[in-house]
Write a structure and sequence with these properties.
With 439 residues, the chain is of the alpha/beta class. The protein has 15 helices and seven strands.
Length: 439
Protein backbone atom coordinates (compact mmCIF):
# COMPACT_ATOMS: atom_id res chain seq x y z
CA UNK A 1 0.00 0.00 0.00
CA UNK A 2 2.77 2.35 0.89
CA UNK A 3 4.57 1.50 -2.35
CA UNK A 4 1.42 2.04 -4.46
CA UNK A 5 0.73 5.41 -2.81
CA UNK A 6 4.28 6.62 -3.35
CA UNK A 7 4.15 5.50 -7.01
CA UNK A 8 0.88 7.37 -7.55
CA UNK A 9 2.37 10.54 -6.05
CA UNK A 10 5.45 10.21 -8.27
CA UNK A 11 3.27 9.87 -11.37
CA UNK A 12 1.28 12.97 -10.40
CA UNK A 13 4.49 14.96 -10.00
CA UNK A 14 5.72 13.83 -13.42
CA UNK A 15 2.42 14.80 -15.06
CA UNK A 16 2.63 18.27 -13.52
CA UNK A 17 6.22 18.74 -14.68
CA UNK A 18 5.55 17.37 -18.21
CA UNK A 19 1.92 18.10 -19.07
CA UNK A 20 0.39 16.44 -22.11
CA UNK A 21 0.13 18.62 -25.23
CA UNK A 22 -3.16 20.45 -25.67
CA UNK A 23 -5.38 19.28 -28.53
CA UNK A 24 -5.18 21.24 -31.77
CA UNK A 25 -7.90 23.91 -31.77
CA UNK A 26 -6.88 25.88 -34.89
CA UNK A 27 -5.65 24.62 -38.22
CA UNK A 28 -3.83 27.09 -40.48
CA UNK A 29 -4.29 26.05 -44.11
CA UNK A 30 -2.20 27.49 -46.95
CA UNK A 31 -3.64 27.27 -50.47
CA UNK A 32 -1.71 27.72 -53.70
CA UNK A 33 -4.59 28.38 -56.08
CA UNK A 34 -4.35 27.77 -59.82
CA UNK A 35 -6.85 27.51 -62.65
CA UNK A 36 -7.35 23.73 -62.34
CA UNK A 37 -5.82 22.63 -59.02
CA UNK A 38 -5.24 23.91 -55.50
CA UNK A 39 -2.21 22.80 -53.48
CA UNK A 40 -3.06 22.45 -49.78
CA UNK A 41 -0.76 22.57 -46.74
CA UNK A 42 -1.70 22.44 -43.04
CA UNK A 43 0.07 23.97 -40.04
CA UNK A 44 -1.16 22.70 -36.67
CA UNK A 45 -1.19 24.79 -33.51
CA UNK A 46 1.11 22.21 -31.91
CA UNK A 47 3.86 22.95 -34.44
CA UNK A 48 3.30 20.22 -37.03
CA UNK A 49 3.57 21.27 -40.68
CA UNK A 50 2.55 18.90 -43.46
CA UNK A 51 1.38 18.88 -47.06
CA UNK A 52 -2.14 17.67 -47.74
CA UNK A 53 -1.89 17.34 -51.53
CA UNK A 54 -3.84 18.79 -54.45
CA UNK A 55 -7.58 19.20 -54.86
CA UNK A 56 -9.60 20.40 -57.87
CA UNK A 57 -10.21 24.15 -58.05
CA UNK A 58 -13.98 23.85 -57.66
CA UNK A 59 -16.31 24.93 -54.87
CA UNK A 60 -17.56 21.37 -54.27
CA UNK A 61 -14.03 20.03 -53.79
CA UNK A 62 -13.22 22.94 -51.47
CA UNK A 63 -16.33 22.21 -49.39
CA UNK A 64 -15.32 18.55 -49.03
CA UNK A 65 -11.84 19.64 -47.98
CA UNK A 66 -13.25 21.92 -45.29
CA UNK A 67 -15.50 19.14 -43.95
CA UNK A 68 -12.51 16.84 -43.52
CA UNK A 69 -10.30 19.46 -41.91
CA UNK A 70 -12.96 20.81 -39.54
CA UNK A 71 -13.97 17.37 -38.28
CA UNK A 72 -11.26 17.27 -35.60
CA UNK A 73 -10.59 20.98 -35.14
CA UNK A 74 -12.61 23.79 -33.64
CA UNK A 75 -11.55 26.37 -36.27
CA UNK A 76 -9.90 26.31 -39.70
CA UNK A 77 -8.27 29.40 -41.20
CA UNK A 78 -7.34 29.64 -44.88
CA UNK A 79 -4.95 31.89 -46.79
CA UNK A 80 -3.85 32.14 -50.42
CA UNK A 81 -1.97 34.55 -52.67
CA UNK A 82 -3.68 37.16 -54.80
CA UNK A 83 -3.45 36.26 -58.46
CA UNK A 84 -5.33 35.80 -61.73
CA UNK A 85 -7.99 33.62 -60.09
CA UNK A 86 -9.51 36.67 -58.37
CA UNK A 87 -11.54 36.69 -55.18
CA UNK A 88 -14.06 33.91 -55.86
CA UNK A 89 -12.53 31.51 -53.31
CA UNK A 90 -12.41 34.11 -50.52
CA UNK A 91 -16.00 35.14 -51.19
CA UNK A 92 -17.08 31.51 -51.20
CA UNK A 93 -15.55 31.05 -47.74
CA UNK A 94 -17.00 34.32 -46.46
CA UNK A 95 -20.50 33.27 -47.48
CA UNK A 96 -20.01 30.18 -45.34
CA UNK A 97 -18.64 32.36 -42.50
CA UNK A 98 -15.22 30.73 -42.71
CA UNK A 99 -12.02 32.71 -42.17
CA UNK A 100 -10.10 33.17 -45.44
CA UNK A 101 -7.46 35.83 -46.11
CA UNK A 102 -5.61 36.91 -49.24
CA UNK A 103 -2.00 38.07 -49.19
CA UNK A 104 0.04 40.06 -51.68
CA UNK A 105 2.85 38.00 -53.30
CA UNK A 106 5.21 40.99 -53.20
CA UNK A 107 4.87 41.27 -49.40
CA UNK A 108 5.71 37.65 -48.59
CA UNK A 109 8.95 37.30 -46.60
CA UNK A 110 11.42 35.19 -48.59
CA UNK A 111 14.88 33.87 -47.85
CA UNK A 112 17.64 35.17 -50.11
CA UNK A 113 19.13 31.72 -50.67
CA UNK A 114 15.86 29.99 -51.57
CA UNK A 115 16.04 28.99 -55.24
CA UNK A 116 13.38 26.24 -55.32
CA UNK A 117 9.77 27.19 -55.96
CA UNK A 118 6.96 24.62 -56.26
CA UNK A 119 3.24 24.62 -55.49
CA UNK A 120 3.82 22.36 -52.50
CA UNK A 121 6.49 24.65 -51.04
CA UNK A 122 4.37 27.75 -51.62
CA UNK A 123 1.43 26.22 -49.77
CA UNK A 124 3.67 25.15 -46.86
CA UNK A 125 5.16 28.64 -46.65
CA UNK A 126 1.73 30.27 -46.56
CA UNK A 127 0.49 27.95 -43.81
CA UNK A 128 3.62 28.48 -41.71
CA UNK A 129 3.58 32.28 -42.07
CA UNK A 130 -0.14 32.43 -41.29
CA UNK A 131 0.45 30.56 -38.05
CA UNK A 132 3.32 32.89 -37.19
CA UNK A 133 1.28 36.02 -37.97
CA UNK A 134 3.82 37.34 -40.50
CA UNK A 135 1.44 38.02 -43.39
CA UNK A 136 -0.01 41.29 -44.72
CA UNK A 137 -3.54 40.75 -45.97
CA UNK A 138 -5.22 42.27 -49.03
CA UNK A 139 -8.59 44.03 -48.87
CA UNK A 140 -11.33 42.09 -50.67
CA UNK A 141 -13.55 44.62 -52.49
CA UNK A 142 -17.30 44.40 -52.71
CA UNK A 143 -18.70 42.96 -55.91
CA UNK A 144 -20.28 46.30 -56.93
CA UNK A 145 -16.96 48.08 -56.39
CA UNK A 146 -15.12 45.45 -58.40
CA UNK A 147 -17.58 45.87 -61.30
CA UNK A 148 -16.91 49.62 -61.48
CA UNK A 149 -13.19 48.96 -61.11
CA UNK A 150 -13.27 46.61 -64.10
CA UNK A 151 -14.79 49.39 -66.19
CA UNK A 152 -12.20 51.93 -65.04
CA UNK A 153 -9.29 49.57 -65.69
CA UNK A 154 -10.66 48.63 -69.10
CA UNK A 155 -10.81 52.31 -70.02
CA UNK A 156 -7.25 52.75 -68.74
CA UNK A 157 -6.09 49.91 -70.98
CA UNK A 158 -7.81 51.64 -73.91
CA UNK A 159 -5.94 54.87 -73.09
CA UNK A 160 -2.66 52.97 -73.11
CA UNK A 161 -3.56 51.33 -76.44
CA UNK A 162 -4.34 54.74 -77.92
CA UNK A 163 -0.97 56.11 -76.82
CA UNK A 164 0.91 53.16 -78.32
CA UNK A 165 -0.98 53.37 -81.61
CA UNK A 166 -0.24 57.08 -81.90
CA UNK A 167 3.42 56.47 -81.16
CA UNK A 168 3.60 53.84 -83.91
CA UNK A 169 2.01 56.24 -86.40
CA UNK A 170 4.41 59.06 -85.53
CA UNK A 171 7.36 56.68 -85.71
CA UNK A 172 6.26 55.56 -89.18
CA UNK A 173 6.15 59.16 -90.41
CA UNK A 174 9.46 59.98 -88.76
CA UNK A 175 11.22 57.22 -90.70
CA UNK A 176 10.33 59.05 -93.90
CA UNK A 177 11.32 62.47 -92.59
CA UNK A 178 7.78 63.81 -92.22
CA UNK A 179 7.41 66.00 -89.14
CA UNK A 180 4.34 67.95 -88.15
CA UNK A 181 5.18 71.63 -87.58
CA UNK A 182 2.00 72.55 -85.69
CA UNK A 183 1.75 73.41 -82.01
CA UNK A 184 -0.19 70.36 -80.77
CA UNK A 185 -0.92 66.94 -82.21
CA UNK A 186 -4.18 65.08 -82.69
CA UNK A 187 -6.21 68.23 -83.18
CA UNK A 188 -8.47 68.90 -86.19
CA UNK A 189 -5.58 70.58 -87.99
CA UNK A 190 -3.26 67.65 -87.28
CA UNK A 191 -5.83 65.14 -88.54
CA UNK A 192 -6.17 67.13 -91.77
CA UNK A 193 -2.39 67.02 -92.10
CA UNK A 194 -2.46 63.24 -91.75
CA UNK A 195 -5.20 62.87 -94.35
CA UNK A 196 -3.03 64.73 -96.90
CA UNK A 197 -0.10 62.33 -96.60
CA UNK A 198 0.72 60.39 -99.77
CA UNK A 199 3.47 57.82 -100.39
CA UNK A 200 5.12 56.62 -103.56
CA UNK A 201 4.53 52.90 -103.12
CA UNK A 202 1.14 51.25 -102.47
CA UNK A 203 2.56 49.18 -99.63
CA UNK A 204 3.61 52.27 -97.73
CA UNK A 205 0.21 53.92 -98.22
CA UNK A 206 -1.66 50.82 -97.03
CA UNK A 207 0.58 50.52 -93.96
CA UNK A 208 -0.02 54.19 -93.13
CA UNK A 209 -3.79 53.89 -93.49
CA UNK A 210 -3.86 50.81 -91.26
CA UNK A 211 -1.85 52.58 -88.56
CA UNK A 212 -4.20 55.57 -88.80
CA UNK A 213 -7.30 53.38 -88.46
CA UNK A 214 -5.73 51.51 -85.55
CA UNK A 215 -5.32 54.83 -83.71
CA UNK A 216 -8.99 55.66 -84.18
CA UNK A 217 -10.39 52.43 -82.68
CA UNK A 218 -9.12 53.00 -79.09
CA UNK A 219 -10.39 56.58 -79.17
CA UNK A 220 -13.92 55.38 -79.91
CA UNK A 221 -13.61 52.71 -77.23
CA UNK A 222 -12.57 55.33 -74.66
CA UNK A 223 -15.61 57.44 -75.53
CA UNK A 224 -17.98 54.46 -75.11
CA UNK A 225 -16.45 53.38 -71.82
CA UNK A 226 -16.61 56.92 -70.44
CA UNK A 227 -20.34 57.07 -71.15
CA UNK A 228 -20.89 53.69 -69.51
CA UNK A 229 -18.98 54.73 -66.39
CA UNK A 230 -21.07 57.89 -66.07
CA UNK A 231 -24.23 55.76 -66.22
CA UNK A 232 -23.10 52.97 -63.89
CA UNK A 233 -22.05 55.24 -61.01
CA UNK A 234 -25.52 56.75 -60.62
CA UNK A 235 -27.05 53.78 -58.69
CA UNK A 236 -23.75 53.09 -56.88
CA UNK A 237 -23.90 53.15 -53.08
CA UNK A 238 -20.63 55.15 -53.00
CA UNK A 239 -22.08 58.02 -55.02
CA UNK A 240 -22.09 60.45 -52.01
CA UNK A 241 -18.35 59.90 -51.54
CA UNK A 242 -17.85 60.25 -55.27
CA UNK A 243 -19.52 63.66 -55.33
CA UNK A 244 -17.74 64.82 -52.18
CA UNK A 245 -14.29 64.08 -53.63
CA UNK A 246 -15.11 66.16 -56.71
CA UNK A 247 -15.16 69.27 -54.49
CA UNK A 248 -11.37 69.20 -54.65
CA UNK A 249 -9.61 70.98 -57.46
CA UNK A 250 -8.41 68.62 -60.17
CA UNK A 251 -10.62 65.73 -59.06
CA UNK A 252 -13.14 65.21 -61.84
CA UNK A 253 -15.59 62.36 -62.30
CA UNK A 254 -13.18 59.81 -63.78
CA UNK A 255 -10.47 60.73 -61.28
CA UNK A 256 -12.85 60.35 -58.34
CA UNK A 257 -14.28 57.07 -59.67
CA UNK A 258 -10.75 55.69 -59.98
CA UNK A 259 -9.98 56.54 -56.36
CA UNK A 260 -13.23 55.22 -54.91
CA UNK A 261 -13.27 51.91 -56.79
CA UNK A 262 -9.56 51.21 -56.21
CA UNK A 263 -9.47 52.12 -52.51
CA UNK A 264 -12.97 50.99 -51.58
CA UNK A 265 -13.37 51.52 -47.86
CA UNK A 266 -11.31 54.53 -46.77
CA UNK A 267 -11.99 53.79 -43.09
CA UNK A 268 -9.50 50.91 -43.12
CA UNK A 269 -6.71 53.53 -43.20
CA UNK A 270 -6.33 54.97 -39.72
CA UNK A 271 -3.90 57.68 -40.86
CA UNK A 272 -3.30 59.46 -44.18
CA UNK A 273 0.27 58.15 -44.26
CA UNK A 274 -1.13 54.63 -44.63
CA UNK A 275 -3.12 55.74 -47.67
CA UNK A 276 -0.01 57.39 -49.12
CA UNK A 277 1.90 54.14 -48.71
CA UNK A 278 -0.99 52.26 -50.33
CA UNK A 279 -0.45 54.12 -53.61
CA UNK A 280 3.36 54.14 -53.34
CA UNK A 281 3.84 57.91 -53.32
CA UNK A 282 6.02 58.00 -50.19
CA UNK A 283 9.78 58.52 -50.64
CA UNK A 284 12.14 55.58 -50.46
CA UNK A 285 14.76 55.58 -47.72
CA UNK A 286 18.22 54.11 -47.23
CA UNK A 287 19.40 55.10 -43.74
CA UNK A 288 21.96 53.57 -41.45
CA UNK A 289 23.32 54.92 -38.19
CA UNK A 290 23.47 58.68 -38.26
CA UNK A 291 23.16 58.80 -42.03
CA UNK A 292 19.66 59.36 -43.45
CA UNK A 293 19.03 59.37 -47.19
CA UNK A 294 15.63 59.63 -48.90
CA UNK A 295 15.27 58.93 -52.59
CA UNK A 296 12.52 58.81 -55.18
CA UNK A 297 9.02 57.54 -54.43
CA UNK A 298 8.64 53.81 -53.91
CA UNK A 299 5.93 53.20 -56.59
CA UNK A 300 5.15 50.03 -54.63
CA UNK A 301 1.40 50.50 -54.55
CA UNK A 302 -1.71 51.10 -56.61
CA UNK A 303 -0.51 52.64 -59.87
CA UNK A 304 -3.99 53.75 -61.00
CA UNK A 305 -4.48 55.92 -57.91
CA UNK A 306 -0.93 57.24 -58.15
CA UNK A 307 -1.44 58.27 -61.77
CA UNK A 308 -4.77 59.92 -60.92
CA UNK A 309 -3.38 61.93 -58.00
CA UNK A 310 -0.42 63.18 -60.07
CA UNK A 311 -2.81 64.36 -62.79
CA UNK A 312 -4.85 66.23 -60.17
CA UNK A 313 -1.76 67.75 -58.53
CA UNK A 314 -0.81 69.62 -61.72
CA UNK A 315 -3.90 71.87 -61.27
CA UNK A 316 -2.43 73.37 -58.09
CA UNK A 317 0.29 75.22 -60.00
CA UNK A 318 -2.36 77.88 -60.69
CA UNK A 319 -3.51 80.44 -58.08
CA UNK A 320 -6.20 79.32 -55.66
CA UNK A 321 -9.71 80.18 -56.82
CA UNK A 322 -13.15 78.59 -56.96
CA UNK A 323 -14.00 78.32 -60.66
CA UNK A 324 -17.58 77.94 -61.93
CA UNK A 325 -16.88 74.24 -62.55
CA UNK A 326 -15.85 73.70 -58.94
CA UNK A 327 -18.82 75.73 -57.68
CA UNK A 328 -21.15 73.50 -59.63
CA UNK A 329 -19.57 70.37 -58.15
CA UNK A 330 -19.76 71.81 -54.62
CA UNK A 331 -23.48 72.54 -54.91
CA UNK A 332 -25.35 70.84 -52.03
CA UNK A 333 -22.25 69.68 -50.15
CA UNK A 334 -21.68 70.17 -46.44
CA UNK A 335 -19.70 73.11 -45.10
CA UNK A 336 -17.05 70.83 -43.59
CA UNK A 337 -16.33 69.28 -47.00
CA UNK A 338 -16.11 72.59 -48.85
CA UNK A 339 -13.86 73.98 -46.11
CA UNK A 340 -11.47 71.06 -46.59
CA UNK A 341 -11.47 71.64 -50.35
CA UNK A 342 -10.68 75.35 -49.94
CA UNK A 343 -7.95 74.61 -47.39
CA UNK A 344 -6.41 72.18 -49.86
CA UNK A 345 -6.31 74.88 -52.53
CA UNK A 346 -4.73 77.55 -50.35
CA UNK A 347 -2.14 75.20 -48.86
CA UNK A 348 -1.15 73.25 -51.97
CA UNK A 349 -0.96 76.27 -54.28
CA UNK A 350 1.37 77.99 -51.82
CA UNK A 351 3.30 74.74 -51.39
CA UNK A 352 3.86 74.53 -55.15
CA UNK A 353 5.15 78.12 -55.39
CA UNK A 354 7.39 77.70 -52.33
CA UNK A 355 9.08 74.60 -53.75
CA UNK A 356 9.48 76.19 -57.19
CA UNK A 357 11.24 79.16 -55.56
CA UNK A 358 13.74 76.68 -54.14
CA UNK A 359 14.53 75.63 -57.73
CA UNK A 360 13.05 72.17 -57.37
CA UNK A 361 12.11 70.28 -60.52
CA UNK A 362 8.47 70.63 -61.48
CA UNK A 363 7.90 66.85 -61.48
CA UNK A 364 9.32 66.61 -57.96
CA UNK A 365 7.15 69.51 -56.80
CA UNK A 366 3.99 68.00 -58.30
CA UNK A 367 4.74 64.67 -56.62
CA UNK A 368 5.11 66.39 -53.25
CA UNK A 369 1.84 68.28 -53.81
CA UNK A 370 0.09 65.05 -54.81
CA UNK A 371 1.29 63.35 -51.64
CA UNK A 372 -0.31 66.07 -49.51
CA UNK A 373 -3.45 65.99 -51.65
CA UNK A 374 -3.92 62.36 -50.62
CA UNK A 375 -4.31 63.56 -47.03
CA UNK A 376 -7.15 65.89 -48.03
CA UNK A 377 -8.83 63.05 -49.91
CA UNK A 378 -8.63 60.95 -46.77
CA UNK A 379 -10.10 63.79 -44.66
CA UNK A 380 -13.10 64.22 -46.99
CA UNK A 381 -13.73 60.46 -47.02
CA UNK A 382 -13.73 60.36 -43.21
CA UNK A 383 -16.12 63.32 -43.13
CA UNK A 384 -18.53 61.51 -45.47
CA UNK A 385 -18.36 58.39 -43.28
CA UNK A 386 -19.52 60.40 -40.29
CA UNK A 387 -22.77 61.36 -42.02
CA UNK A 388 -25.72 59.00 -41.40
CA UNK A 389 -27.37 59.90 -44.73
CA UNK A 390 -25.92 60.91 -48.12
CA UNK A 391 -24.80 64.52 -47.79
CA UNK A 392 -25.02 65.21 -51.51
CA UNK A 393 -28.77 64.54 -51.85
CA UNK A 394 -30.62 66.18 -48.95
CA UNK A 395 -33.70 66.67 -51.09
CA UNK A 396 -34.04 62.94 -51.74
CA UNK A 397 -33.61 62.16 -48.05
CA UNK A 398 -36.31 64.67 -47.08
CA UNK A 399 -38.81 63.47 -49.68
CA UNK A 400 -41.79 61.50 -48.34
CA UNK A 401 -41.97 57.78 -48.96
CA UNK A 402 -44.25 57.00 -51.88
CA UNK A 403 -46.69 54.14 -51.27
CA UNK A 404 -49.98 52.92 -52.60
CA UNK A 405 -53.15 53.89 -50.71
CA UNK A 406 -54.18 51.45 -48.04
CA UNK A 407 -50.65 50.12 -47.48
CA UNK A 408 -48.33 50.76 -44.60
CA UNK A 409 -44.78 51.95 -45.19
CA UNK A 410 -42.04 49.69 -43.88
CA UNK A 411 -39.75 52.53 -42.86
CA UNK A 412 -40.11 56.27 -42.51
CA UNK A 413 -37.32 58.56 -43.66
CA UNK A 414 -36.87 61.58 -41.44
CA UNK A 415 -36.27 64.88 -43.21
CA UNK A 416 -32.71 66.14 -43.14
CA UNK A 417 -32.06 69.88 -42.88
CA UNK A 418 -30.27 71.48 -45.79
CA UNK A 419 -26.53 72.09 -45.27
CA UNK A 420 -25.47 75.51 -44.13
CA UNK A 421 -24.24 77.66 -47.00
CA UNK A 422 -20.79 79.17 -46.83
CA UNK A 423 -19.06 82.06 -48.50
CA UNK A 424 -17.31 79.65 -50.85
CA UNK A 425 -20.43 77.84 -52.10
CA UNK A 426 -22.55 79.65 -54.69
CA UNK A 427 -25.86 78.60 -56.14
CA UNK A 428 -25.98 78.84 -59.91
CA UNK A 429 -29.02 79.89 -61.88
CA UNK A 430 -29.89 77.01 -64.26
CA UNK A 431 -31.50 79.46 -66.67
CA UNK A 432 -28.18 81.17 -67.33
CA UNK A 433 -25.28 79.79 -69.32
CA UNK A 434 -21.81 79.88 -67.87
CA UNK A 435 -18.66 79.75 -69.87
CA UNK A 436 -16.52 76.69 -69.38
CA UNK A 437 -13.56 77.45 -67.17
CA UNK A 438 -10.44 75.49 -66.43
CA UNK A 439 -10.24 73.76 -63.09
Amino acid sequence: MWFAGSLRESLNVLMIMNPSPTPSTIKYVGLDVHAETVAVAIAESTGELRSYGNVPAHSQAIDKLHQKLSASAVEVRYVYEAGPTGFWLARHFHRLQISCQIVSPSLLPKRAGDRIKTDRRDALTLARLLRAGELTFVHVPEEADEAIRDLVRTRLRAVEDLRRCRQRLKGFLLRYGRRYSGKSSWTAEHLNYLSRQKFDFPGQQIAFEELLNAAQDPAQRIKRLTQVIEQQVQPWNRLPLLKALQCLRGIGLLNAVTWVCEVGDFSRFQHPRQLMSFIGITPSEDSSGKRRHQGSITKAGNDACRRAIIEAAWHYRLPARVTPTIRQRQEGQLKAITDIAWKAQTRLCERYRALIRKHKKSVVVVTAVGRELVGFLWAIAREVDRQPVPACEPALAAAPVSRRPGTRSASRVKPVPAPTSTARVYRLDPRKKYKAATR
